[in-house]
User: What shape does this take?
Amino acid sequence: MRTVTSALALALTVALPTSAATSSQEASAASAAEPILAATPPLGWNSWNTFACDINEKLIRDTADAMVSSGMAAAGYEYVNLDDCWAEKERDPATGRYVAHHERFPSGIKALADYVHAKGLKLGIYTSAGTETCARTMPGSLGHEELDAQTFADWGVDYLKYDNCNNQGVPAQERYKAMGDALKKTGRPIVYSICEWGSNDPWLWGDSVGGDLWRTTGDINDSWSSVMSILDQQVGLEAYSGPGAWNDPDMLEVGNPGLTRGESRAHMSLWALLNAPLIAGNDIRSMPAWARDQLTDPDVLAVDQDWSGRQGAKLRDDGDTEVWTKKMSDGSVAVVLLNRASAPAVIGTTAAELGLPQANSGYAVRDLWTNAASASRGTVRAQVPGHDAVMLRVSAGGTTGLPPMVVVDVTPAKPYIGGAEANAVTVKVHNDGTTAVTRARLTLTAPAGWTAAATGSVQIGSIDPGQTGTATWLLTADRPDLGPVNVTASASWTWRNQLYSGTAAGQFTVATAPPAGASHLSDLTWLYAENGWGPVEKDMSNGETAPGDGKPLTIAGTVYPKGLGTHAPGRIGYFLGSRCSRFTVTVGIDDEVGDRGRVGFEVWGDGVKLAGAEATGAGAGVPLDVAVDGVDLIELRTDPVDGQNYDHADWATPVITCT
Ligand code: GLA
Assistant: This one.
């Protein structure tokens, strides 16, 4: 709970030093009297993402132990938070107070708080601003705010996540203010986490009702599409964040099974850049070393915890590649180079675009995940694997003794090829540094079954600052396997008599084009399929969980025997190999969600949008008829319009006509 002036006012004092001087003085006077809770984004753990209702006091105590033994506590993680399902279904009939669940928490919450406090940590708890919580296993606090806040304070609770389920239609601000006031009245500092899913723009009022953080979206899950969809919903909220008033893009899925290491790294990098509360959602008792390293990386956490006046934001959006940046208080800039595609890509920006001052000696660039440091004359780029991110910190000057920033990249001429087609692969070595490198040499390793023939010299020699060395190989294979082909390039060069080297990975895919005539996409093999919940289904709707758990595809009363049952946000790609001319489909929300759900459907060809339509649960199916002449890759995209709940997006009768 923040009790001084709003974050917006504080931000204004930075932007308008003269006119805002008075409110700045007031703010510091008030904060001297009562320090801001959550002055930096809270760091902790919460039970929901991994354990849902399957929680008990031993799990929580063991998690507190693991917080210390894993090094998370030393890295700054502090809160151990219970989510839903910790209480009995009925209140104590005599006192009206919450009762801890007899089987799961037999020792009670006070004893648990004592245990957690003895470890130097803090305890968080959960309930809903409604009559019951979301899992409906325990009562909510609507109408019981003062008693419940006092109960939490008496138990020694330090953090409350206050959810939005079963709210009986009472206006959000009224409900969240009642709890904010009740927490304040207890006199105990309790961090107040508003979990209203962004439904009523809580960034506009969360601070004024006592919130320290507020969820900006619906629930995250451990899938790349969920992480990306939540990221997209943060754009434009940068201004509504500050000490004691944080935008919360939901808890972390870092280290959970649905994300790869690279996907976890991207998630962690972006959440840190957004000054997000970092509430781990994995099983920290048994996490692999890589997950612990990602959660505790000191340089990445330092970006999250640095309040320089504004949370990070998207600087550039080039479709599958994006550049996100955040100004740091020391004048440097934190940069996340995000690759949303599945194949590697070179992503770059410049010191000028990052808003850094002109520096004659160049810019020091540090990779926050690998700790490699180099000097750049202004270009800042890296090859980023698919579904991954590189996180850098760039400062003007400070380059003495740093080797030049040299970047290797590999680009196949075609990302998808059919049958035994040949593909050219170009390898580049960019000297983005301030001094020359010498004796540069390039190598390409051909994957098994493939022959790589260089089309020219691979000895590059000297590369001056700002220059690039290039070599090209022709790759051929007699009878290549279908699927991705990984190529690795390496470069070596010399700088000040020291040998340096770098590698880069590239990828293209061998695929089969659809047969001549008309085919249903649900009868073909896709190249990739990403889906909001559960797998994409063929010829049935999306049942959200296991393969084959859907129902007949039905839009506005019409049953479609053929089609793809998806859940937004999603992307499904098919190889057409320039052999097809027309794609027809009917898009709509499946009847199984009633009149709920709202989805944007789009058809893309080779990275260009060809057609689109929005459909709602209440509306009819929308027919699309799309010319696809010359297209190699068709992609069917769905995006949630108003949050991803109920977005059962059907592609009914998806017919591709080819020659
Ligand atoms: C809602 C919240 C989640 C989680 C569950 C618990 O869905 O948004 O974060 O707390 O309730 O039931």
